Amino acid sequence: MNLTLKVWRQKNRNAQGSIVDYQVRDISPEMSFLEMLDVLNEDLLRKGDDPVAFDHDCREGICGSCNLFINGRAHGPESGTTTCQLHMRKFSDGDTITIEPWRAAAFPVNRDLSVDRSAFDRIIQAGGYVSVNTGGVPDANEIPIPKNIADRAFDAATCIACGACVAACKNASAMLFVSAKVSQLALLPQGQVERKTRVENMVAQMDKEGFGACTNIGSCAAECPVGISLENIAILNREFLSAKVTSNNLA
C-alpha cells in the first residue's frame, strides 16, 4: 500500500508543533502500525532527516506505551486494540492517516508523538499500592476471596495505564484509570487497611496533576483497549464519599 501520513512534529515541550505530510510506499497489510512508522523513520534517516519520535516498548499490547491518536481516535480505528496491535490491513491503499500525540495538559509532549505520562506514576505513588511489613505476612494464596470478587478485581487490574481514556475524554479526565486502580485494591482484603486514605490521596493527586472532571460521557470506556468498565468509576465515587464522611482530612 501507498499512504499519505500527516504526522505531528514538535521538537520539544516549548516548541510550537505542526502537522507534516509524508509519503510511505510498499507498506504490507500484515505490518503493525508501529512497523509502518519504523519504515517511515528508516526513509527519513536515509534522507538525513530526523526520525519521528514515538513511544513503544513491548509491542504486544501489554505495556501501554504506544499512545497514538490515529485519525481522531485513541489507538486507531479498531476497538479493544492498542496501537502496536493495530495492523495496516485496517487501512486501504491511498489512505491519508493523521497521527497525533495524546492531547491533555497533564500529558505534555516530549517530542513529536511522545508524551510524558509520569502523572499516572505519581497518582500510583500517592496510594495505588498495599503497604505490608515483612515478617509473618500470610501468602495471598491463603486468603479466601469469592470468585466473583476476584474476577471483578482482576478485570480492574487489567488496566495498562496507556492514557487512552484521558485522550478520548473531552475533559481529559483520568477517572477511568484512577477508578480501576482504586477498585482493584478496594475489592480485595489486602487493600482494606489503607482503603480510605488510598482513595483520598489518589483523587487529590489526580486533581493536582491537572486532569479534568468526569462528566460520565463514556468515551473513556469506549476507547479503552482492554475494556475497563465504567462500573469502576461508580465504585470510586462510592469509595471517595465513604472516605470523606469519616475523614479528618478536610482538604
Automatic annotation (TrEMBL):
Its cofactor is [3Fe-4S] cluster; [2Fe-2S] cluster. This is Succinate dehydrogenase/fumarate reductase iron-sulfur subunit. Belongs to the succinate dehydrogenase/fumarate reductase iron-sulfur protein family. It comes from Hymenobacter koreensis. It comes from the Bacteria. InterPro entries: 2Fe-2S_ferredoxin-like_sf, 2Fe2S_fd_BS, 4Fe4S_Fe-S-bd, Beta-grasp_dom_sf, Helical_ferredxn, SDH/FRD_Iron-Sulfur, Succ_DH/fum_Rdtase_N. Residues 150-180 form the 4Fe-4S ferredoxin-type domain.
